[in-house]
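Cross-check.
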Amino acid sequence: MSPDLLVRYARLKKAERNALYELSVKNSPVLVLDRAALKGHLDQVVNDRLAFSQRFVACSARHLASAGSSGIPDPEMDMRMALGRAYYAAHHALRALHVELTEWDPDGHKETVVAIGELCKTDSRIGPRFSWLGTVDLSDAIADLLEERHVADYHFYGRDVGRTAAIDFMVRAPQAHTLAQNIVETVSVIIADNRSGKL
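Predicted model, tokenized:
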């Protein structure tokens, strides 16, 4: 299956995929969908999205290192980039998690935040895996990081309308990187545990 079709298939809700399968059964042998093959395609989307998140973590780390190098004319820009790449690392890891556990890939940024919040509330196996966040809710942490990424990309004063204080990217970017790195590592373990029957 082509990468484009893999992503399109993963974005279908489970009920939509079931309807496609039922249609294939009713119209056999004209249209035949193999559920095992389709599950394999979803697994591939999860694997690819998780690998993508790991690349974003590495990119964030490179920007952090660059900002800390002597002679860099504008270290704040590298910190802004590090924060943005950290957000995308967390975003793609959490989408991989959602596909793995629900067989549906939420597409948008805010849609992903909501979907992950719902997943943590409805699947009691997930929330405790993120206990390292302390009292912070995972979806709230991602929503905050999304907003900070937006500010980093669009607002040269370091704050958006309605935000009371500017973001200090020299402080916040390393924190965002650590958050994203921990999310990617936690998601990787959850996915491995799910596939091995340990979840």
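The two ends are 29 Å apart (CA to CA). The chain has a mean pLDDT of 88. Passed to J.P. for a second look.
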